[in-house]
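2024-03-11 09:14:02 DEBUG pipeline.ingest accepted 1 chain
2024-03-11 09:14:02 DEBUG pipeline.ingest length=384
2024-03-11 09:14:03 DEBUG pipeline.predict start
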Amino acid sequence: MSSPDPQVHAAQDAHDRPDRPDREDGVRQPRNQAARGPVVAVTGAATGVGAALVARLAASDEVKQVVAIDERRGETAAAQWHVLDVRDPAIAEKLRGADVVVHLALDLDLETDSAARTAYNVRGTQTVLTAAAAAGVRRVVLCTSAMVYGALPDNDIPLSEDSELRATAEATGVGDLLEIERLGRRAPRAHPGLNVTVVRPAVLVGGTDTALTRYFESPRLLVVAGSRPTWQFCHVEDLVSALEYAALEKVDGELAVGCEGWLEQEEVEELSGIRRMELPSAVALGAAARLHRIGLTPSPAGDLAYTMHPWVVSVSRLHAAGWRPRWTNEEVLAELLQEVAGRHTVAGRRLGRKDATAAGAAGATVALLGAAAVVRRARRRRGL
């Protein structure tokens, strides 16, 4: 989107905001302090997407004030900070006066204990929705993932935003995201007057660490025979701008966000220069399940589905509101490859430099697959 002429913008600003006087010392007040836009609260505000959104909103002429909530203080001094756990019912008082809450306090770390992760994500979302309603907030923006649609061989390409959510809880964090979606659907019925907007990014890239970004840290790209992988990325910058649209109430409902179009597996291999290692479905899925079960890898077998089947999404609602991504799939893939350079991951397990050097590239994969087979044979001998 093109920027308005600065002189026109300044004149309009003076006309629209006559109540923004200069201070007696001649210093003009920061523009956002006198803005007539919403007061926006952001949870998970100190790091990652939350920190980027807080900085963007604090610099916006369309936002009156930013309330930042996290378990530690972040770097954006212009925001009003509250340090607390989002599961603390006291958050209701901190949200009083806010018009919109963007809830980004989620734990999707691959290394986090799954029970602890679910307890934090689900309880946190429940508390924020209830507290927002009690505080008179008119809109809550939730951020999940396009993974909730599920990766299935019969998926439309692209999926419409109204497509049925057919994911299961078998992939990392997806069970939590499905429960968050359920809570989001129920909240307006339980709290009339509360609007809930859900933003679902494609494969998120930009300082992120997920099973899908780790896929590109492998020495070979695992391809399951007979599958048709498709790749659609979302740069963190584009997610932040989409969340800003939702926070400013320029768009609502259930929104997918990502780059235009998608890349086929062959295009990804050509652009990345990483060759594939193709395995039969039974071998790949069986090995992934065993490796996860015995604790060798953090990723359950369900994560493999998202590298096998299409889950590309349409971003029509954001487009209709005037939003456009700044990044292309090709550009995001290039950035991802730069980010993961020097990292070594096999079957979702990140190896140290000595591990990778000693095992070798394809050899490390074979070693892990072989380890699962050895464990399986040993259990059979023991009658387990």
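2024-03-11 09:14:41 DEBUG pipeline.report The chain has a mean pLDDT of 85.
2024-03-11 09:14:41 DEBUG pipeline.predict end
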